[in-house]
Design brief:
About 65% of the residues lie in helices and about 0% in strands. It contains eight helices and no strands. It starts with 17 loop residues before the first helix and ends in a 6-residue tail after the last helix. It has helices spanning about 20-30, 45-50, 50-55, 60-80, 85-90, 100-120, 125-155, 160-185.
């Protein structure tokens, strides 16, 4: 008995069949726009995400500001921890320091903020950069308010305190500027 041979398989060239390709892409969910208006070319890029989408477009001078802030916070922290009398005298121009403990605690808090700022300097994550800038702006705002209240309570105005207030106001403006610049959505090209 002769075995019946199956008919030769006809290969369908789906690569050239436009309707078949469109149906396949529709089933996979690629080729159309997503919620952000991006068109994914493959399922892999859709699942993994587009790396350009997550890249932070850094404003000019951001990394320099982060470096200056980290160095400034570290320097003042070390000075407050090691030389609390000299730090107090430099700002308030007074020789009277009843206790060194509050100034050293202030130095410890500054050192903690400095560590956050050093870590934020080496990251590319937008959320971490924004939180560090916000923490910095909040610190400067609180220091500005506390110094202003202390200045209004006392009758003397020291040059160091006025310089501190002006510099803190400037630092608040710079930190908030970079905070909003990092948070801006990039323009679609």
């Amino acid at each position: 008995m002769a075995a019946k041979q199956p008919p030769p398989l006809m290969k369908k060239h789906s690569q050239t069949d436009l309707v078949s390709r469109l149906k396949t892409r529709k089933i996979l969910g690629v080729g159309g726009e997503d919620d952000d208006g991006e068109v994914h070319r493959s399922k892999i890029s859709q699942v993994l995400g587009n790396e350009i989408k997550f890249a932070v477009r850094e404003p000019l001078g951001l990394r320099v500001w982060q470096l200056v802030s980290a160095v400034m916070f570290s320097g003042v922290a070390v000075m407050a921890l090691a030389f609390p009398d000299q730090l107090f005298n430099a700002i308030f121009e007074e020789e009277l320091v009843s206790s060194k403990t509050p100034i050293r605690l202030y130095g410890g808090a500054l050192l903690s903020i400095a560590l956050i700022l050093w870590n934020a300097l080496y990251t590319a994550e937008k959320a971490i950069i924004r939180w560090s800038l916000l923490a910095e702006a909040c610190y400067f705002a609180v220091q500005f308010l506390v110094t202003t209240v202390s200045l209004t309570e006392s009758s003397q105005i020291a040059t160091g305190v006025v310089l501190l207030l002006v510099s803190r106001a400037l630092f608040i403006i710079i930190s908030i500027y970079y905070y909003y610049q990092v948070g801006r959505r990039p323009k679609k090209v």
